[in-house]
Amino acid sequence: MGHALVATHTWEEMPDVREAMSKAGLNKDGVDRGKALLAEAEKLVAARKEEAPEDRISEHAIHMAVAELEMWLQTLRVVLQQKVGDAQVIKAALDHHLHGSEHTLSAVAGAMRTLAVLRTDARVAQGLGSERALHDLLIYGQTLLTKVLTLTRQRLEPGLTTTSAPAYDALEAHAARLLAWTAELDRAVAQVGDNLQVVGLIGYVPQGVGLPLGGASFAVPLHLRAQQAPPDPADSGCTAGWSVGRQGRNRENLGKGFVEPTFE
Description:
The protein is mainly α.
């Protein structure tokens, strides 16, 4: 749903993106189908929330996770202003104006756009002056986004004692149609892979393009604290930090070895 919101909104609102994506295969008919599928998904989510029993604890957890994600976005704005200082980059990464029927969906879509721009705009890496700094931003943001998505999925899923959930069954069936449309989006975006500005704005980065997201460990805040407040060298106790991992590069978070950023 987040990808559909970013892609359809960007296609409609940004002429340059619309032209590039139309040439790549995502035309008005495709965008209209995506919008219709998204609208139906939003209705089914609302129906599922009405169908499911009240769970204030889960709702509160989702609200807190979204708040954490939005705080990261505001912190990122300050970082980009100080380190990159390019108004065009900041606007592309953070001025989203993406509005779904639920605030959670809007926050997810905005975070997808932000992460995609960070991964595909070389000016970000140049401004930060460190590949590690960019990796840290990406991993931290992806971690917070993953937390929102995980909690939302858990909130929508039926409980162990649930015997019938028609709205959830309909939502599951509809998800397959939405994923099929996303596959069309993937094929179109792959055709503009050399136009990284479009890829970032559309919020969908195909394999092999831009900088990989890396891992999404919930221990990232712990790693961040370890970086900001290194332990006393005289202290022999174990401290979690980025030294955890092969050759001190935290390679486990990046799969097959550390990947340097490329924007070609």
